[in-house]
Amino acid sequence: MVLDRVEELLEKYFEGETSIAEENELKVYFSSLDVAQHLKQYQTIFGYFSQAKEQQFTQEIPVQTKKRNIVMWISIAASVVVMLGVGTFMFTKYNEQTTNLSEYGTYEDPEKALEETQRALALVSKHLNTGIESVSYINEYENSKNKIFKK
């Protein structure tokens, strides 16, 4: 009767339908010395589980040192130094340009200064009128839209 139960549990085991308690029954049966001759082939499978319980992991696990953290901080510091260098370069370049620009635009002769100012204002007026023309198209679009979609 025990042999029938073991064969039934083996079928369920290989179909993946056994519970943990049933698997433990199989382990106990196959770890004993009185295993039926036709079931001896399965003894190695279930014998593995009892051997696996006794195994100990003896290999050392390498622990990460702080070397990785040091490398990370060095790379961050290098990035900051590069950014400061670029910022300093751009700042000095900008100051040189503003210094040079402040030298331009000063006139000793008031008539020449008036003439240059009028020329600059005419240029600004020309570009402003171009912008106003573009806005007139928007007004035309708004009027057309209001005709189509009466409020």
Q: What is the total tally of β strands?
A: 0
Helix proportion: over 70%
Major sheet summary line:
none
Q: Name the beta content range.
A: under 5%
Topology diagram in text:
Blueprint: H1 2-15, H2 20-31, H3 43-54, H4 67-103, H5 110-148
Helix pairs in contact: 1-2, 2-3
Structure description:
The chain has about 150 residues and is mainly alpha-helical. The protein has three domains: about 55 residues, no CATH class; about 40 residues; about 45 residues. Helices cover about 75% and strands about 0% of the residues. Helix 1 packs across helix 2 and helix 2 packs across helix 3. The termini are far apart.
Key phrases:
mainly alpha, 151 residues, 0% strand
Brief summary:
The chain has 151 residues and is mostly helical. The protein has five helices and no strands.
